Amino acid sequence: MGSYKKIRDKKLHGRLRRKSAIRKKLSGTADRPRLSVFRSNAHIFVQAVDDLTGKVLAAASDSGKASTPEMSGKKKAERAKIVGMSIGEKLKGQNITKVIFDRNGFIYHGRVKAVAEGAREAGLDF
Prior knowledge:
Low-confidence stretches: none
Oligomer: single chain
CATH topology: Nucleotidyltransferase, domain 5
Radius of gyration: 14 Å
Shape: globular
């Protein structure tokens, strides 16, 4: 995670502080992985992580070769919902239905909320 005390940007500093507080409480397992969301200005990335072994079980994003045709012409929140549905389908293929949602210090609003809604529509349970 790194030390957030060396970072001068107030907005990033606050997010990393919230992230570390959240990660103290959350941990994913193979049966119930941690669904980690990262939101940049342009894209959104989601990973299902097993923290016991440190492995990523599945990943999805709106920037990639597989997702480009269905993402074109959509707003960022709509693309985030498609990414949530995509990660949900990948995890359902691995017989995983329960996850722990890690908003990664971001506010549960907008694109982060859209990812969660898309994952729920795909059949994941938080």
